Amino acid sequence: MRNEREFPSAGGAGAGQGVGARLPRKEDDRLMRGRGQFVADIRLAGLQDVAFVRSPLAHALIRGIHVPERFRGSVFTAADLIGVNPIRAVSGLPGFKISEQPVLATGKVRQVGELVAMCVAPTRAEAEDIAAAVTLDLEELPAVYDMRKAREPGSALVHEHWGDNIFLETSFEVDISGALDAPIKVSREISTARQCMSPLEGRSVVATFDHRLDQLTLYSSAQMPHITRSGLAECLGMEQGRIRIVSPDVGGGFGHKGILLPEEVCLSWLTMHRGHPVRWTEDRREHLTASSNCREHHYKITVYADRDGRLRGIDCEATVDSGAYSSYPFSACLEAAQVASILPGPYLMPAYRCRTFSVATNKCPILPYRGVARTGVCFALELMLDLVAAEAGLEPGEVRLRNLVRPEQMPFDNITNKHFDSGDYPEAMRRALASIDVEGVRARQRKGEADGRRIGVGVSIYCEQAAHGTSVYSGWGIPMVPGHEQASARLTPDGGLELRVGVHSHGQGMETTLAQVAHEMLGVDVARVRLIHGDTAMTPYSTGTWGSRSMVMAGGAVAAACRELGERARRIGAKLLQHDLAAVVLQYGEVRGVNGSVTLKEIAHTWYRRPQDLPADVDPGGLEVTAGYKPRRDTGTFSYAAHAAVVAVDPDLGEVEILDYVIVEDGGVLVNPMVVDGQIYGGLAQGIGTALYEEMPFDAAGQPLATTLADYLLPGPTEVPAPRLDHMETPSPYTQFGVKGIGEGGAIAPPAAIANAVNDALRPLGVELMQSPITPYRVVEAVLAARDAERPAA
Amino acid sequence: MKPAPFGYERPRDLQAALAVLGEAKSEAKTAAKIIAGGQSLGPMLNLRLVEPQLIVDITGLAELKQAERRGDELVLGACITHADIEDGRIPDVTRGAMQSVAGNIAYRAVRNRGTVGGSLSHADPAADWLSALSALGARLTLRNLSGARTVAMEDFIVGALESALRDGEIVETIHVPAMPASAHWGYAKSCRKTGEFAHAIGAILIDPSAATARVVIGAIDSAPIVITNAAELFGGRIAGDYKDRFDARAADVLLANAGVSNAAHRHIHVSVLKRAVREAGA
Lengths: 794, 282
Hints:
By secondary structure, chain A is α+β, with helices and mostly antiparallel strands. Chain A has 18 helices and 29 strands.
């Protein structure tokens, strides 16, 4: 496979450092020693802390905000923020209704936790004391807390002038009528709980103004600093050049750190108003109740199939609870509207129909969380395929194998025109089935368990479109469309290499993997490559880190910049060696000719320190290059994985234990397989959270009920098994090195595989669970309901 | 999540602590609060669920860190930590029962600081010691400036987060009777994940030769259900075949009578108790 790649093998000398090497992560040296620098670690002279007065109600008119006399001057409301614009994230999709999110509430509040007033004091505790002393006079309105009821006429309205609660309705159809006479027809309602993304580090903001530079500097735990700058400039009415965003070490993003926060706008205004730096650090209660949510989907779905399990079509109506506001830049409709295009996944089918609804409710805005809509879609479709298998009397794995796109069909356009670049999906499924030993589980099921528990096996498979670019995002019409990705590469006078990228690394290991790419191209030792990222003043513009795009896009850009840099070094080297350009090659970090060689370090030294040694006709471009990159086709790479789980379920206690977990993953060519393994482990943990633990319930007043981590349960080390990983490596034909984006996949398939395993275990009891998370209570409730149903009527 | 301002005292001896507590005001939200391990009070302060004017830190009271066997019982000072018990630093009179309970409380970090007296005083129905010590037949000595009194565990817990402690009163010692050699002990709980509060607890101390049994159903929304004479759960007779005679229906009725109206919740509680009975052993 390596010899098919389109790059010079300049690595060589530092063998084991280039593309494909399992290098330990460079950034771990500081992170593991507690020397990382996060926003909350930043100390600036005169820094004061901010606490917010947040709405205690989900939906209410603001009649008054009362600030005690002694705190006047330390409390700011919407009335103070003159000239500050609301956050607007508009989609160009036809029919999209616009929400305006005031950074501090005006007129009414539309979610619990909405910012109403900003309190500033020397410490956070004092700021919270002030916030506690501010009283709100609110007139409560009926809360819109259930997205399905919100669609009904007569519902209370989140945004009155809309006339309904629908941000956007979309539909897609390919001849569903052809499927209606199928012999197998299975219909269900399936739902996934609302979740909080819960990165280890919450959001955090420090704002300060530099009069020398006439520039606002905002330190923010953000994934997409350049996009934050654009959004902030629009809200503040400032030139973008007067704003600098710095994202230092960031403790996980997952989408939570992809949006422009009202807090970022508020603190930017405040530091300019007060003349000293200000800080706000999201606490865990704010994260759980006030910030952003994800994942809440509902599906009404019918799957049609022939007796042999072959799919005839899918008909679906999907509803997503988008919350109160459209968030910047992804908008309120990305999640639901995406469902229509990705529901068929890697399966073949002749007919398909899907309608989607993005619904406004009195809850936090929904954000795309690792996997975005794919986790819900995979859950819905894979649970349905198990029911098809049961109807057809087939093993669930066999139904997958009969319907998956085949390798000889690649590249393949599916029924929603998704362009699959490469891959062998049936092979991944076959390997997973063999590894999990379905036959062995069946034999064990026939014997029964001594402890009264029930064993089940479940599988799921998905495709993950990643690094999709201009042609895909221009269609969404949202504030952000990725174009060419750029990177800068500079040889330093002592032969080191500096890379500058506009994406941000916050757990992805890019300080290591992009250095590996540079090593592959130039042969510079990975230890001598420094990655500069997370600063709009120092990096090329980029839409940032999202959509599993960084390795494909920034990796490609780094390769392009290094290729050009290598070419320039070769030209200088040829002059120094007094060779024709055609007679020298760049190899092993040196420019080599028949009579000798000159190292990149020597070339750099000559260029910067001894230019007198260079001939007059040397290329004046020097040893610093900015280059852009886009894959040959920008519809995205398709990575995929088959997941298989064995679980033991206690039908009396409802407890689910994962006994075995297998992942067969194909992410194309892997730059650092160890980093990929880490991505999969982390994603799996989050997927297990979705499957079994995480849920943010709301009551009928729109109050979020899991307000601490005692109620919002995250999986811990004892809840996450050590999965058995198997990598396939089918290169993408469109990208540098054949890489594909793989950042999200680990979180996509686990809920489906685990739910299928639980249902497999409980099917003999007549139990079927179609809702995540699968809690002990839900299991026992379903078991008791099935027992009642079996009992003959008296 | 920062606490409201509060005063802080760290008395050197029990008498000084009782004096401070005796003087403190006692309105519900602003009453003085005793802090020992702080594993529940700490988060409650940070969430501003309580805003006491005064925090009395009793971790400096050497009297409350004593543990010794006195005759047929273990006398534990209120500030003994879960980890002290888990690690075997106190005398064992329950043939390992308390050590096993202690080792499964929350996480090690919580066990390092959390105290038995603090857990009981906080009276969270999901806490292990409420159920375990009720089943073991423990009694508590409570003290204030005017003297001491002794109450049985089942009388000490009045409701969820409600104990029999009066103003100015503190849990001084916990008295655990030595477990007879003929007794069987069973303890089970169901937690959604390791270290989380249990959503069901079952505990049983049964002595078939003496035909006695104490059974506790804990982690309900009120004080644990303590059945001091549990023959009704075993068909009216406690004997060597008690595991076969366990009557799930009778346990279900007890839960229904205690106000647990949801059938699935009752089923989980009964199943956990059934497991405690099944796993009970000498």
